[in-house]
Design brief:
Layout (H helix, E strand, L loop, with lengths): L8 E2 L26 H9 L9 H18 L10 H22 L9 E5 L7 H7 L4 E6 L2 H13 L5 E5 L2 H10 L7 E6 L5 H8 L3 E11 L3 H7 L1 H7 L1 E8 L7 E7 L13 E2 L5
Parallel strand pairs: 1-4, 2-3, 2-5, 3-4, 5-6, 7-9
Antiparallel strand pairs: 6-8, 7-8
């Protein structure tokens, strides 16, 4: 499912949190000040180590943000209420995850690293990760045709080799590959945003994870509770909590990593869960 043509869209064979203050109880909310692209990009760069920052990456990230905001006036890629604030947050989250992945490379044996982003939408976090980590092979999966087309157009415009876009749902991919008698492609990292509960997210990601691969997703205040509730599922599915990283600047916002064990019978204690910068 990696495809022969980079940055090509394919169809499967079968089918910040903020408060709007008021001057008086009866006054209308003040209009939001848009966040400039330069500020959005700067917020993302602030999450990256120096070795990942360069002018080419900065220009690609700015071009992506501009294209996203322009297209969003015609196609609903991001909420149209407070759009630039949402984009600023998503870019920072994606950049923070890119920093984590950059550190995680040393753990992986594979000479090349492959990442699958499920439900890519407008490109968060998959497109941001590809722009920041251009040497990682990235496959974006998006079930809505208009969004998938946007992603493919951005990939072509920004000249991002090693990036492909698949117009499909993850469940559809698993079903088609199963009918062919072949397992889905294996990835060192599987990412996703807004894929439901942690158990639902892991169910979508697990078929695509290579042994010792990690599913990375974003969680809010319910993170600890969802981790506790998912314990039984993790044991049955051969998964284990791997990392819990609080996202700087946002209250009760986390990047969560769930690892696929080499053996489904392997036991991993709760104490192996990396928390914050202690695990780096």
């Amino acid at each position: 499912m990696t495809g022969d043509e980079e940055s090509a869209i394919r169809k499967p064979e079968s089918k910040p949190e903020w408060i709007a203050f008021r001057d008086t109880p009866d006054a209308a909310p003040r209009p939001e000040e848009p966040v400039p692209t330069e500020e959005i990009v700067a917020g993302g760069l602030a999450e990256l180590p120096e070795e990942l920052r360069n002018d080419a990456m900065r220009m690609r990230l700015a071009s992506y943000v501009d294209r996203l905001l322009d297209t969003n006036t015609r196609i609903n890629l991001v909420s149209r209420r407070g759009t630039t604030r949402h984009v600023a947050r998503f870019v920072r989250e994606g950049a923070f995850l890119a920093r984590i992945l950059h550190s995680d490379r040393t753990r992986l044996i594979a000479p090349a690293h492959r990442l699958l982003d499920l439900g890519s939408g407008g490109g968060f976090p998959g497109m941001v990760l590809k722009i920041i980590l251009p040497d990682v092979d990235v496959q974006l999966v998006e079930g809505t045709g208009k969004k998938a087309k946007f992603l493919a157009e951005v990939a072509k415009a920004l000249d991002l080799p090693g990036l492909s876009v698949l117009w499909a749902r993850s469940e559809e991919i698993v079903r088609i590959e199963s009918q062919r008698g072949a397992p889905p492609g294996m990835f060192e990292w599987v990412t996703g945003k807004a894929l439901g509960s942690l158990v639902q997210s892991c169910k979508l990601a697990a078929p695509f994870l290579a042994p010792e691969g990690v599913h990375w997703t974003f969680k809010g205040a319910s993170c600890e509770a969802e981790l506790a509730q998912a314990g039984g599922f993790f044991r049955q599915a051969g998964l284990a909590p791997f990392a819990l990283e609080p996202i700087p600047g946002f209250t009760e916002s986390y990047v969560v990593g769930i690892r696929k064990l080499s053996s489904s019978r392997a036991a991993v204690s709760r104490g192996t869960l990396r928390r914050g910068r202690e695990g780096r």
